[in-house]
Amino acid sequence: MKLETILQGLKTADPATITRSIILIVALANQILVSAGYDRLPWADTTIGDTATYIITAVVSLWTWWKNNSITKNAQISDTVLSALKSGETTAGVIDSVIGK
Fold first, then answer.
1. From 16, 53, 89, 99, which residue has the greatest number of CB atoms within 10 Å?
2. Domains in the chain: how many in total?
3. CA angle 68–28–65, rounded 5-degree value
4. At 6, is the secondary structure helix, strand, or coil?
């Protein structure tokens, strides 16, 4: 996937998708710092700080993975189509005729 495609998709992405992505990036960056031995929480015991970091990274990773993070324009369009199908605004037959199946 090209970087320009991702950046274009971010302009129209759902704010929750952007928020989840930013939180995941911060958690992963923090995890890298922990693995490299840098102390992020000066008030915390090393073991407590490391454990907290591992738990935060795991939770945020699972949360981000579980949610549908539609960043590209095509993914956002497919979300709209799926929503229209679920709400009854359109049918699978109409979609098939539009895409030529």
1. 53
2. 1
3. 20
4. helix
Averaged pLDDT of the chain: 78
Q: Is the Cβ–Cβ distance between 73 and 9 less than 8 Å?
A: yes
Q: What is the token pair recorded at 21? A: 């992505």
Cβ 53 vs Cβ 34: under 8 Å? yes
Residue 50 structural domain: 3-72
Which residue matches tokens 């949610």?
Answer: 67
54-86 residue pLDDT tens: 888 888 888 877 777 777 788 888 888 888 889
Nearest residue to 70 (alpha-carbon basis) of 83, 89, 57, 87: 83
Residue 68 to residue 77: CA distance in whole angstroms:
13
pLDDT, position 87: 92
Does residue 15 surpass a pLDDT of 70? yes
